[in-house]
């Protein structure tokens, strides 16, 4: 199995991060088999397009909530990694649980070191 689970919604609370705020989160390695998707359907045009990340972030967006990792954006990039026989990908990870504590998302970014 490529992912831990395939979901079709975002079960975590709305975080409200803009593209600019996501860009401030340093990417780190995440295992594909630890991810739960938030989309059950993929557009093959997106998967096969050569310029699929031209207008977006190069790194997928993952939300950590209640100990689980939810793939919010970048499903086609994660599948490409799997098709290339990779078990990890670099993603920006937002820990929603930690961002609900004093200090907000800024504190999360500094406290969460990149995994190798």
The count of β-strands is 6
Q: Give the low-pLDDT segments.
A: 101-114
- Protein structure class: alpha/beta
The average pLDDT score comes to 81
**End-to-end gap:** 22 Å
Fourth-tier CATH superfamily name: Conserved hypothetical protein from pyrococcus furiosus pfu- 392566-001, ParB domain
Our count of helices gives 5
Which CATH-level-2 architecture? Alpha-Beta Complex
- Specify the biggest β-sheet: 6 strands, mixed
What fold name goes in the CATH topology slot?
A: Conserved hypothetical protein from pyrococcus furiosus pfu- 392566-001, ParB domain
- In percent, how much strand structure appears in the residues? 25-35%
- The CATH class turns out to be Alpha Beta
CA-based gyration radius: 14 Å
Instruction: Tell me the helix content.
Output: 25-40%
Describe this structure as you would to a colleague.
There is one protein chain. The protein has helices at about 20-25, 45-50, 75-85, 95-100, 105-110; strands at about 5, 25-30, 35, 60-65, 70-75, 90-95. It has about 120 residues and is an alpha/beta fold. The protein has one domain (about 20-110): Conserved hypothetical protein from pyrococcus furiosus pfu- 392566-001, ParB domain, CATH 3.90.1530.10. The radius of gyration is 14 Å and the shape is globular. The model is unreliable at about 100-115 (pLDDT under 50).
Gist of the model:
The chain is α/β, with parallel strands linked by helices and 116 residues long.
SSE layout and pairing:
Layout: E1 5-6, H1 19-23, E2 27-31, E3 35-37, H2 44-48, E4 61-65, E5 68-73, H3 75-83, E6 88-95, H4 96-99, H5 104-111
Parallel strand pairs: 1-3, 3-5, 4-6
Antiparallel strand pairs: 2-6, 4-5
